[in-house]
Amino acid sequence: MSVGAHPSQPAGTEEYQPVFTEQMLEQLNEILARYPTRQAALLPALWLVQRARGWISDRNMAEVAEVLGLTPAYVKGVVTFYTMYHQHPVGRHFVQVCTTSPCNICGAEAVVQALLEATGAKELGATSPDGKWTVIEVECLGACGFATPVLVDDDFIESVTPDRVPELVRKYK
Ligand code: FES
């Protein structure tokens, strides 16, 4: 199952740069070849967009919907369901901290505060002034026995405590 033509730009989007260039369409076609339907390829297609743009705008979602033959509302529903997809620009390093009850009891809130301070992000969901960091809280990361688990980009780090945070942040600078 392949995609041959570039999707048309939505009306009134003169400055919008389509994400699905020829090269991106080639990558999308490689993905589509591994899935039984276009709809089934939605998650990896969204990853493709996020890797290219850093986040997924409404227009990007409309473009994905068009190339996969879905509705923009369906694509938006998927994007908004998963915290791993960014609906606005984020820092170069995206930090996710589990604050669900078991981790909370073990001090996750203090880890969050230490991360906000050490990164300069200051507030959950905000990006640090140097553009490097965004920290968010997430639900259970599946490592409840290793509180507090933290995801920095694709790195999974267990048993993070507030005193470990400065060293952790330095490692990514
Ligand atoms: S509750 Fe934190 S990893 Fe499960």
How would the blueprint of this fold be written?
Elements: H1 22-32, H2 42-53, H3 58-68, H4 72-81, E1 93-98, H5 101-105, H6 108-119, E2 133-138, E3 150-152, E4 155-157, H7 165-171
Structure at a glance:
This protein is an alpha+beta fold. It folds into two domains: 1-87, NADH-quinone oxidoreductase subunit E (Arc Repressor Mutant, subunit A); 93-171, 3-Layer(aba) Sandwich (Glutaredoxin), CATH 3.40.30.
Protein described:
There is one protein chain. With 173 residues, the chain is of the alpha+beta class. 39% of the residues lie in helices and 10% in strands. It has a 4-stranded mixed β-sheet, with helices on one face. The protein is elongated, with a radius of gyration of 18 Å. FE2/S2 (inorganic) cluster binds next to helix 5.
How many domains would you count in the coordinates?
A: 2
The appropriate CATH architecture of the largest domain is Orthogonal Bundle
**CATH topology grouping of the largest domain:** Arc Repressor Mutant, subunit A
Structural class of the secondary structure composition? alpha+beta
> Tell me, what is the CATH class of the largest domain?
Mainly Alpha
pLDDT below 50 for ≥5 consecutive residues: which ranges? Answer: 1-13
Count of helix runs: 7
Gyration radius from CA atoms, angstroms:
18 Å
Average pLDDT taken over every residue: 92
- Kindly state the number of beta strands: 4
* Name of the CATH homologous superfamily of the largest domain: NADH-quinone oxidoreductase subunit E
Query: What is the 3D form?
Result: elongated
Q: β content, as a range?
A: 5-15%
Relative helix content: 25-40%
Q: In whole angstroms, how far apart are the ends?
A: 42 Å
Strand order of the largest sheet: 2-1-3-4
